[in-house]
Amino acid sequence: MSFKKRYLFALPALAMAAIYGIQRLPFFKFATAPAEVTKLFEKEGLLPPEFKRYTTGNRSIHYLQVDRQKKRSLIMLHGSPGSSDNFLDYLMDADLRDSFNLIAIDRPGFGESGLGRGVASLQEQSQCLKPLLDTLKGQEIYLLGHSYGGPLVACMAMDFPEFIDGIVMVAPAISPEHEPQEWYRPVIESRLAGWYFAKSVRSSNTEIKALKKYLDKLLPEWSDIKIPVAVVQGTKDKLVPKENAEFAKKMLVNSPMVDIQYLDGEGHFILWSHRDEIKSSLQKVIEASHNN
Length: 292
Known about the structure:
There is one protein chain. The chain is α/β, with parallel strands linked by helices. It has two domains: 1-30; 32-291, Alpha/Beta hydrolase fold, catalytic domain (Rossmann fold). The chain is built from 13 helices and eight strands. It has an eight-stranded mixed beta sheet, with helices on both faces. α5 packs across α7 (149-159). The chain is globular.
């Protein structure tokens, strides 16, 4: 065999080895170490958040909390993959700190909440977060969810209407009709190939592979949401198309306010690039909840 043929034969194996190695880098945890978070806050002259956790069933859930002794809390839920550090800028935001107790959660299977042990069911994830809601009784509670966090905050509003005062969904993957069914997801889920992928990728695959099924299950329950809802959506989002925002408008028939804010020409990562617009939508939800 010539050198050229040997090189071409070895190239796929080398590429797979390189991808495997890259996935083992700290970046692929999609989380920032507590010491680094503390340094970041101290650099800005802010007290760092508290690093807290609770146990529910066989799950230990980790979250960051900025407790300003307010009468109102904002719980923030990341996409897939991701972690609580997706909301570090929000935890440091002066306006939000002045208005809320702020909580950013590592959803089950991500960050410090059992990395690699993903949960397929939206309803099961919702139940995992119930103990946190119990600690906030007596407060106004608002939820902010990005991407996969969007359907999760909607599910929580359906499951726990007595707790939730309003929700904001940012680029939410909520329409079962528009949820893609990628061919490769069963491969990542398989025992044979699963070891190859980073834990964060495996957790993400577990929930995204099953998302359409659980979105279908939610269809009859959208009419149960009777609180204000805002959706912030980029018109050029290729991961979660804008039809998801239109789905929210159609399904939220009993919500006293459904505010859809389209960001022209923007993609999926508006959580980081358009914080002011998201804060504006949150303010609309608060005002509507007080007028309801």
